[in-house]
Amino acid sequence: MGAKTAEARLEDKWRDILSTHARTMCEIDRVLHPYGLGASDFEVLDILASESPRDGDQCRVQNLVGRVHLSQSALSRLIARLEKDGLLERSVCVEDRRGVWVTLTTKGRDLHTEVLPLQRAALARMLG
């Protein structure tokens, strides 16, 4: 039988990427579930921890859009939930009233520090 077409190989590669992503997200969800977090929750905390490494540092929500693979409305809901859980705080950007700042709380920073090794170990298992 004939060799796979370039298009079929491309489709296979794409499906492999999607499968790896789905399995990895499920594994991260599994290890973070006991801490009340999912993979997307962790991703926001992780970006905030790296973007704003000191207590009180702020990050604009707009800087998260595109880095967290959620729609803008889903990201807004996630941020609202993280705020309700006391993991971050939101404030309006004085310079641009349409903008919103987010800040990791001490609780959010501590939780991120606690679960970071679990998330990285999950990544190593799934992608290593």
UniProtKB/TrEMBL annotation:
Highest taxon of the lineage: Bacteria
Ranges of residues in domain HTH marR-type: 1-128
Pfam families according to UniProt: MarR
Entry keyword Metal-binding: no
Entries under SMART domains matching the protein: HTH_MARR (SM00347)
PROSITE patterns membership: HTH_MARR_1, HTH_MARR_2
UniProt cross-references to Gene3D superfamilies, sorted A to Z: Winged helix-like DNA-binding domain superfamily/Winged helix DNA-binding domain (1.10.10.10)
Keyword Chaperone listed: no
InterPro entries in UniProt: HTH_MarR-typ (IPR000835), MarR/SlyA-like (IPR039422), Tscrpt_reg_MarR-type_CS (IPR023187), WH-like_DNA-bd_sf (IPR036388), WH_DNA-bd_sf (IPR036390)
Assigned keywords, A-Z: DNA-binding, Transcription, Transcription regulation
Protein name: MarR family transcriptional regulator
Source organism of the structure: Streptomyces cylindrosporus
PANTHER family: MARR FAMILY REGULATORY PROTEIN, TRANSCRIPTIONAL REGULATOR, MARR FAMILY
